[in-house]
Design a protein that fits this description.
Layout (H helix, E strand, L loop, with lengths): L3 E4 L5 E4 L2 E3 L5 H12 L5 E2 H8 L5 H18 L10 E3 L3 E4 L5 E3 H14 L9 H13 L14 H31 L3 H14 L4 H13 L3 H18 L6 H11 L40 H11 L9 E4 L6 H12 L7 E5 L5 H11 L10 H12 L5 E5 L5 H4 L9 E6 L2 H6 L3 E4 L5 H12 L1 H5 L2 H13 L4 H13 L5 H14 L4 H15 L3 H9 L8 E2 H8 L3 H13 L4 E2 L4 E3 L2 H13 L1 H20 L12 H13 L3 H18 L2 H18 L2 H17 L3 H18 L2 H17 L3 H18 L2 H17 L3 H18 L2 H17 L3 H18 L2 H17 L3 H18 L2 H17 L3 H17 L3 H17 L3 H18 L2 H18 L1
Parallel strand pairs: 1-7, 8-11, 8-12, 9-10, 10-11
Antiparallel strand pairs: 1-2, 2-3, 4-6, 5-6, 13-15, 14-15
Helix pairs in contact: 1-3, 2-3, 4-5, 5-6, 6-7, 7-8, 8-9, 8-10, 9-10, 13-14, 17-19, 17-20, 19-21, 20-22, 21-22, 23-26, 24-25, 24-27, 27-28, 27-29, 28-29, 28-30, 29-30, 29-31, 30-31, 31-32, 31-33, 32-33, 33-34, 33-35, 34-35, 35-36, 35-37, 36-37, 37-38, 37-39, 38-39, 39-40, 39-41, 40-41, ...
Amino acid sequence: MIDLKILCFNGFELNINNTLITRFYSQKAKALLIYLAVEANQRHDRSFLAGLLWPDFSESRARRNLSQTLTALRKDILDENKDAPIILSTSKTIEFKNQSNFYIDVQILNSNINFIKNHQHSHPHQCAICQQYLIENANVYKGPFLNHFEGDISPEFENWILAKQEYFSQQAIEVLIQLSKIYEVQREFDKALSINQQLLELAPWLESAHRFRMILLAKKGQRIQALNQYSLLSDILMEELGVSPSEETNLIYDQIADGKIKAANGNAQNTTNFTVSQPKLNIPFQAPALTPYFVERKNHFNKIKELLDKTDTTLQPISLVGMGGAGKTTFAIQQAHALKDQFPDGVLWGNTYTSSLLNILEVWAKAYGYDFSELTDLESKATAVRNMMVNKKALVIIDNVDQAEDIRSLLPGHGKSVVIFTTRNKEVALALNANTIHLKEFTPGNSKSLLINILGSSRVNEHPSELESADQICRLLNHLPLAVELAAQKLKARPQMPLASLAVRLQDAQKRLSLKVSDQAIRSSIEVSWQDLADISKQYFIIIAIFQGRPFSTKAFSHIAGIDLFDAEDELYALSSLSLIYEQENNRYQQHLLIADFALEKLMSNESLHELTKTRFINWYFEYVKKDGKEYSRYNLEWDNIRSAIAYAFELKQFEKCIEFCLFLTPAWQAKGLYAESRNAYHYGLNATKALEDLQNKCQILFNLGSSWLEQNDYSNAKPHLEESLNIFYHLEDTQGIASSFLQLAKIEIEQNQLNDATDLLNKSEEIIQIESDQEILANIYLQQGVIAYVQNVQSKAEQLFNQSLNAYRMKGLEVGQIESLRLLAHVQLNKNNFSLAEDFIHQANNICEQINNKPQLASNLYTLTAVYLRQKKFHSAIETGLECIDILTRTGQKRTKGMVSREISDAYAKIEEYDNALQFGQKSETIFDELHDELGVAFAQRQIGDVYKATNQMDFALQFWQSSYAIAQKLSNQTLISSLDDRINNLNLEQE
């Protein structure tokens, strides 16, 4: 049986049988050991551990890495006794068994904390047993958890470290506070000052600790030192937090200066309470304004407070479940305002019905000064926001959740933030394992309180019959908050109307409706409010239904309703005063979903008005997208309405408009990376071209559709659309379209290393386009031909073609083409070992990038510069530049370049003998190329991984990866790679002989 000692505070240290272990199979092996040991005696799912350590890899690849790392870890810690293993594992789980011969400082500290918390004693500062445990903890905690834990570890594991660091730091502060109080009570002031010094080193901003030190020094008779401590505190607070000492501290200073706190010659004075002073920050508060009329639900509020008071480090989401109209959103708004002081990092709000998940995440990021706009896929943006939130304690409220998948990307993950979401579907709450609070209809008392809040008590109480009618109205409306609010606003708008009259009308309305009780109550209330509108206001009200509950601008409503802007503002104000619509920020309005459903039924029953409204809706948004076409940011609030306009255009058989929408919006979709959005619209466009038998636009939309798939490296979907567009371009004898299609198809073949097929396609494109003399397409052809020559190692031809493309791009003033040509020229010079010339080309390319603010191209330039530094043996510069490149690539989604630069970084780390990092980046490269189905990229990555294993004397693994790479190289007939692998494998065999 081995003796194992693990220390995690102020760094990491592993001792086995009194021998310090400094070498691990990899950094991930060390991370795996730490996680299992800290979370000992718990079974951890293999899928979870794989995702924790290898989040960027496919699940199968991550699990393979986990198995391989676990095997190596057992060797590292001598855990090879199958009868009594330290780490228990099954096909599904892994568990670290904390036994008597193991010492783990984290578990010691936790155990002592739990003992002190549960120990029964008469006075916390006079318990000798607890004092011993506190002393042990003060000795155990030597600094931050895993301080300066370096190496390439996953963001998820880093987040876990950060959460643990903060938790243990707070525990250590509490330990030192309690221990210093004990020594003060015992009048051992020197010991109290020593512990206090530890506390100030850990938390120099803790004003109460400085104040306590002043008192201790005064009690020791060191009055001057006590007053000097005040000066030191003032400097720290002003420098760190920009504030002055509190009034409480000033009072202590005055008492010491006046001699009121003297040296202790008897019973010690009372101990001092400690509080943590925090700087006041500008924090986001995104919740809507409180409605002026609401009734508190104290039982539900107390339930939320009870959940928040739990000491769990991570609280499950809280779901507010209830039927439509039950007041879920209003209650959530109330919670946001009531609880905001408990969340120092603010309140975030999102509505999954009216905003896309991407847009919600982007708005949250900007609230904290982050810009993730370049992250165009949901997974990447969600990961970035989770990393942003890891150290924040915010209240996150998500409204109108219909499906569990709608919210998963918005959950902030591990940390102190709390999520509250509203839903009608209790199955959603179950799927997310949420703490569920059911919001039912109001109690009769609360229902009447809401009515009185809106109408005023004098009106309701002016006659017993009115009070009785108020009860009847609430009862008829089933005490549903929305229904009661609508009825009350109706009465408020007609001050002469008796409550009894409204009760009768509600009763009549309910008789006409054959709905469920809850729906009937709401519909009755809406119906009565609707009936009393003027005819023209009724029309405006149902016209708003065209937005189907989505937010809309006053200008959009003005156009669609066909009225003057000022009249539109008046009408919207009148409807909002009746709670039939709600005003938002930016001069926008929105209908409650239930009211929108009611209005839509009315609109659909009037076919001519319905069609007219749709037509005006289409026209408004058609002109909207045509105006200032390059100002794409202004679309952010309107994408959902634009999407509906395209669908309406197709529905009304306005096929020309449908097609034009697609063509106008293509640059915006490309610039914003909204590929899925564009493809949905293109399908409408394609069907429209079929209906019109419009081959010209059909092939253009097919071309755009294929190109959108190509941008995301989805070649299986890109190729058939581009091939179909090519066939139609041939039929139309559209030479420019034919050449462009050949060019795009050639890019696919190049990416898949089918160079002969790519060459044929480029030759065809060049032959066609030279007749047309289209310089832009010709420049693109030269560039791709140069890429093929470069890959085939015909460097002189590649250089000539890249210069041709550069000159053609310059003639046309095309900046991106110039950047690509300069970068590829730098690669040619790199192969010639002309490093200074290569750097010069990159600097020229970077200058253009800065002029046009093109970060994807900048990332590609940095990749090339990484390679230049690597060839010059400037390994640290290569790593630094490569990591900067990775940062940009992660935000822009350029997977291929990320795979290549990961391989270069791996090589640089290997050269400086940081093999765990080298292995990680080599594996990242392999995974990326595997996802892209790029066999050549996989082969080069595997060769690099084999090189790392060879350098660490793991010959079996090295041979395994080299042989796999060799098989691919033979399949692709890549002689350069075959030759390099032959040398490696032969040399390894000779060494082993």
